[in-house]
User: Fold these one by one.
Assistant:
Number 1:
Amino acid sequence: MDRRKFMAGCLGLPLLAQAGEAQAQAGLSKIIFPFAAGAGGDTLCRLIAQEMAPTLQRTLVVENRTGGDGLIGIKAVKGASPDGSMVLVTTGPTMYLLPMVETTPSFDTAKDFMPVSLLARFEFAVAINPAIEAADFKGFVAWLKAHPDKTSFGVPSNGTIPHFMGSKLEKDLGIPLTRVPYRGSAPILNDIIGGHISFGIVTLADALPQHRAKGVRIIATSSAERSPFAPEVPTLKESGIDLVADAWYGMWLPAGSQLDFASKLGAAASAALAKPEVKEKLTAIGLIPVGSNADGLTRELAANTAFWQPIVKATGYKIEN
């Protein structure tokens, strides 16, 4: 490296640090959501940011930092100053699955992040193009067997619950499936509507608007019982697939953040989620508001890690990094 450029960079570091401190002191926090705008998780972020800002007396800005199967946003918060200027909201699975599948984990959830709150639960759905002649999930399986050249399916990104759900379906159904990773659910749904892929495994929250508009058709959900959001749709278990899977969104700060701020942030998030108008808006898109303290988020993370670890290991899937 050029020595003059190196020295210039070093001289700039104090200015960058001062800029970060100024931002934090000015009361600005960025909520980093590592997936595309327009989906259920993005809506969740924007709703609670609006409600939390007056309570915290801070300006909360939602920023979508997509890429790397969620890693771009996660690593941005991991490397951020623990001054409250950056907050991570992401799915639980990104926080427990990614460390399982990377050859060299980019982060350690327990060491690199401070838990704040569980936010909302959600289910997954198998969605197809409504033009496909299949009355139900079993009918769709028969259609796939009759059309082996049309077995491509979309997942929000690699290394996610939909990814591993797809692996289990491929094994259980005995049909070779071609997984296509996307950056979020919205482009998957667009490609199902456009006929570019036959089906997708996405969050029920993301698929519901298009399902109701008849742009796509949900033929199965991943919950243990029929979803209150789509009671007409059978579960995978009802359809003969021994699989129950749901997930959730959580909030974290960089490790080393002030406990007092983390506590206030979690309390503000839980209070926002308890508001009737927020509950109504979230349930309308298939999210179940929860809210918790840091301990609740930690327990949820541990339980999910224990459940999925053997399943992921059996697939042999790894991300080279």
Number 2:
Amino acid sequence: MEVEPHRAPLSVQVVSDGRTGIENQALGLAEAVQRLFPSDITIRRIRWRAAFDKWPSALKAPWMLDPSSDAVTPAAGEAWPDLWIATGRATLPLSAAVRRLSGGRTFVVQTQDPRWRNAAYDLIVAPAHDRIEGPNVLSITGSPHRVTAERLAEGSAAFADRLALLPHPRVAALIGGRSRAFDLTDGHAADLADRIGGAVEAAGGSLMLTFSRRTPEAAKAAMTARLAHLPGLIWDGAGANPYFAFLNYADHVLVTEDSANMAAEAASTGRPVHILPMVPLKPADKFARLHADLRERGAARPFDGTLEAWRYEPLDETARAARTVLERMKRA
């Protein structure tokens, strides 16, 4: 499908609570739609007043939104958007009402598994590992995201002087942290660092290491202390984020098993994805299903302490979701 510039652009509204990992799912899908069909994208960030934030979605009303929220309904004389793409629990009461309030003008897409009023949305784009079914459900491997070859190249420009001359193989290590299903203790982090460092040294390569907001400080310190001697870059969170640059320059990507988003984004690059084990806190069946899916598609394998290379067709699930949105809107 190619963009046809003569068509009137779609008005697309992206709605989330503003957290980067959440917003990027809706924004990534909107940008994929834009690459296929002329579109004007508007980002809206909302939050509920503290007194109502934990209320059930069924009891929430727009007047309960915090005054800092962006307006999500049109002002007088303005039209409803053609396409509403929302992500996250905070958006559910709003998404569920849009079709009714817009008089059916707005096509409503919700990413992730809503777990509430699933029939209220025109399309749900959900991770296959969540095992949600229905006539309005599109299951994809992982979640929608913003990673494309073009965006990776753009994001790499500011880091070229530090990364372009690093020795191969270049290893990007994407480290998560504590969640409901996993933990990253300082002891486990130290063990991971030793295994990663041993693999990089044995291959004569370099390391590009980044942590998430959930990475415990003790784990960061343990890994940094053990890996700082290697050629490469360890991002300490200061300055511009090198995440896209790391993915762009990497020959291998190591991802902790706690993040579905990072695994799916890494698999879109076509580089070997090695899954790093975490400390389990409870059964994590959905992550196991995702990793099994990635293995079946040739993208990922458990990290075995070596940097074996392999090839596979890069995943492009966000584009597949965008095509489905346009088909359902009869704009394909």
Number 3:
Amino acid sequence: MKKSVWLPALIAPVVVAGVVAAPVIAQAASTPIAGDHPTAAAVIASIAKSSDERYSGKLSQTSDLGLPELPTGAGGSSLEGNASDALSLLTASHTARVYVDGASKQRVQVTEQLAEQDLIRNGSTVWTWDSKQRAATKTTLPSRSAQTPGSGTTTPTDVAEQAIDAITPTTTVSKPVATSVAGHDAWLLTLTPKSSDTLVGRVQLAVDQQTGLPLRASVTAAGKDDPAFQVGFTSLDYGAPAARLFDFTPPTGADVSTKDLSDATPGSGARHHGAGSAERPTVSGSGWDTVVALPAGSADQAGLDADASGLLDQLTTAVDGGRAVQTSLVSVYLTDDGRVLAGAVPVSALVAAAK
């Protein structure tokens, strides 16, 4: 990845996990939700059993992070166009079709403006397809892999797992209350940070009462009433989807690339930045106030061309020692010496952490 393409990825609302990572809730029994008044721990534990569910449905994602809306594909360079496309994932509403047949078969389809993006996993084989670029990538996963490469589409399960990881003594967890999502009875949990310094006001999770499947997840900024980020099912049908949905053959003339991760060993991969462990991110603070810092050289602003510099100037403002952007949920700070700091905290906290 080019160094100057980092910005959209760092702003993504997955900071609930990446920036606010903390120990998982302790002693949550892995049992079904029981009774009319389950505990929060029982609701959270029920999510684990949903990994084998079979279903199909439609997801809706909305974002209001306070980022400027840039024309999709705009700009005189491919970099600016790609960054604009990535930012559209965070500034506009999106819908996706999701098909799941247990833990090893999934398909996500995002269709917009006469273009389609797909991620299809069938066992250890994962295909990604971008009809706009007419590009397909085939990835072979390790035989015991429990993870699927990112598709750019966030599901309620993603956000739920990230928020659960943040449950610590720094977070107040509400008693479950009954609600309904896409016609299914659910339990609603509210996670409220105890810190007064974080940008996150609350995270809400709606979990199917019968299956434990997360049906909706939202993150609301501190002091706000409406979610800054929300993703949830608008329709959901349980049952195995058609087997053909998990097969994929690239169209004739498509640009096809392959990645083989089947022989990957722990510690191997794409961490080749020339400095070994010195290149690893550092973490300061704790809980919702955690700040993650990437090492010097992660954001080489001096090497940007005119188009990329213009996009950077449009997205960020000058602050002491560099440039920064603060969304409703996360801030990112680029220091003049090339470091990148990010956290669910105000920019001032990142500037202080950089000194």
Number 4:
Amino acid sequence: MAVEMGLWRADGDKLSRLVPTSIGLESQLENYIESDSTMLGTTLLVIGRQVPTAHGGFIDLLALDETAAVHVIELKRDKTPRDVTAQALDYGSWVSGLSRAEIHAIFETYKPDIALEEAFAQRFNETLPDEVNAAQVFTIVAASVDAATERIVRFLNEDYGVPINVVFFRHFNDNGASYLARTWLVEHEGGVSPKTASVRTKTRESWNGTDWYVSFGDSPEGRHWSDGMAYGFVSGGGGEWFSRTLKNLPAGARVFACIPKIGYVGVGTVTGGAKRFDETVVAVDGVDTRLADLPLSGNYRHADDQDDATAEWAVPVEWTRAVPREQGFWRTGMFANQNTAAKLRQKFTIEEVSAAFGLDD
């Protein structure tokens, strides 16, 4: 059944129906969506406009949602029903093969003055996920479509679960004021399924096998970063959840230490495996010394820490560069994680911290 939108002006007890007009609407919709993508019913980050494909076509708009799924947005304009649907799917098939690096390149062409990670964080207040383009969504934007297009889209969406839909906009004028009304062809029911693991290698940022993120939970009553910086260690504990990932750090790994809500404060190389804090030995002025015997500022004891699961654990690190807490470095979009240690895949963070700490010199 064709979708029809109506708009009436209420003057007291009298209703006056406004007559819609599509004059010039579809030529303006691309600008409207680019300036405010929420008009499509969800928050999106536009990453490209008139994006050239490998097959000679141009995608009207490409965008990411908060899960980093890619949205292919095509305006109907004067295309035939088969053309607009086939084109959206054709473009989608090309987009599905794009790697994370290619998505970055598209955004860099579109917005060369800001990193994708930073733009994503500003838009969604979240770190860009490890997997980008693990799923695609297809949206056809139109003032109206005929019955054939409706049948095709409903068939694909409702019978086969293809995430394709049509969003309708109608334009109304009323005494000098302009209005847009919106509705969807198929009721929107949520997210899309990610790709299988065999395909994710292209959509996930690769790990260089060396770099790790470490969260150093500095607090007045607990561990102090000044100790870790001075004596060369990172630590975590008070529960197995906090210490278990720290034990994954291998000797020779490069760690990027970050104080939550402060920023990155150190980059260094792991020199030994994780041990209980009271058994960890570090080199101080060339002399191997137990951390527990040093004049520490922080408190590294926990209730019932005779048990390894609740004890504080530490990993010795030789710092390449370390700065006081007050000089912690942070940029919107950089990597952060609730685990004490995690593989650091995000090139944006590695490059920004390296530049800030002069590691590229």
